[in-house]
Design brief:
182 residues, alpha+beta, six-stranded antiparallel beta sheet, 8 helices, 6 strands, PPA1309-like
Amino acid sequence: MTDLSAATRSLAVSVHEVENHVADAGWDAPPRLFALVATAGALAADPTLADRLPSDVVTAARTDPHHLLSVEQEEFAADGDLERSLAVVAWPPTVDGAALVVERIVLPPDAEESVPDDPQAALEHLANHPDRQDVRLAVGVLRSGEAWCAVRSRAHDVAADVASGPDLVPGLVAALRATFES
């Protein structure tokens, strides 16, 4: 992560923190959405916030202007159609980015050809396929365009085995970026 911009580095840290937070609750969870806010800006707008945040967060915000604070959007519910649910999300100007954590089932490319067209039959096929892999996808974007993704496999459920990069889940990156378009 040394060759990343300061903003992307802070986003990467925030995405990993959010993914670890969600991982603490275990698997089989609904999608979770987080607003990302520049901590220094939040502290400037509300100095009493420093009393409610951990001291290491306040210290980090004072030394890193790109440090981000994540705020879970508890009212977010995907109701079966994640893309449609994200399409109605709009952020106020005080929100600098967003992160989404969602679980998916993936199959090897050769196994995807046998997935039925019927959505209900496809879900049953995926759930019972012997080569299925459960993954947790954490995707974050900044209003300024930066993106970061973290992917954890249930089969290798260890923080050290989380894969990450700026474009691992391009469809979710695009959907999350769209929440910042007017």
